[in-house]
Write a structure and sequence with these properties.
The protein is of the alpha/beta class and about 300 residues long. It folds into 3 domains: about 120 residues, 3-Layer(aba) Sandwich (Rossmann fold); about 100 residues, Arc Repressor Mutant, subunit A (Orthogonal Bundle), CATH 1.10.10; about 50 residues, no CATH class. About 55% of the residues lie in helices and about 15% in strands. The protein contains 10 helices and 12 strands. It has a 5-stranded parallel β-sheet, with helices on both faces. It has a 5-stranded antiparallel β-sheet with strand order 9-8-7-6-12, covered by helices on one side. The chain has a two-stranded antiparallel sheet with strand order 10-11. Strand 8 and strand 9 form a beta hairpin. It is elongated, with a radius of gyration of 22 Å. About 5% of the residues have low confidence.
Length: about 300
Amino acid sequence: MKILLIEDDGLIAEPLAKALIDQHYVVDVVADGEAGWELLESFTYDLILLDVILPKLDGISLCRKLRSQGNRTPILLLTAQQASTNKVMGLDAGADDYVAKPFNLQELLARIRALLRRGNTALPPLLEWRNLRLDPSICEVTCEHQLVRLTPKEYGLLELLLRNPHRIFNTSALIDHIWSFEEPPTEDTIRSHVKGLRQKLKAAGALGDPIETVYGIGYRLRPGEEKRQDLKESRSNDGKGQRELDRLRVESETIAGIVDIWEQVKEAVDRRVAVLEQAVALLLQDQLTEALRQQAEQESHKLAGS
């Protein structure tokens, strides 16, 4: 799944992009509305995360522009504005959902999953091929209930093939779906990822190779025994305990990641607070300059969304 994040505040964009990549999403990040529009004219995305207040072209105007051009990609607005009128404007402009900053990361990820499901209502929550199982809700692959550790690119490749069992993907199609525009791979790189995925699945005990090479064209899911349905009740009962453990492990890793992100951004947040404290002190002394007032206003807006 490929997501476009349009957010001008690096303290939000960088950790959010990292959290999404950790969930095996492919993420492109830009800092203004015009750059977002240019990418959306060139590439296809499964979801857009869109800040409301942006340089050059604000989020609500970009949302209207996309919908007027017939772009139906799900849009989730990120806004520091609490007024209901602003939320109404965003939804009326064509946004599908919104979250107010500062947001809870787990809630945001849940809303993203919900929007992606809504945009793909025909897709089942669990994807299977013989004894392999991919669970998009926790971004994990298992073989006979044993976790198969894959890189984000390997996971994206397997998920893409499982979701489209009758489609052949050539090199350019794989790049569009699995790589961001800033890191286009060579054909050798793609072959290396396919080889690595095959080796890991074989080592995990997969009953055959799920990836079929269509020579001169690309890759597809090997026909015959792929399954794209919910687990049968008996197998589901066997896996419930393990799935709960997997869910708790993912939550624990996410919390650890949040702590790590805070350590990375704490210094920048402290600098912003210092600017506000300086502005307040000078305001009380009637010595606040216009330049510092504008800087303090910008920093307060960014802190409200951090």
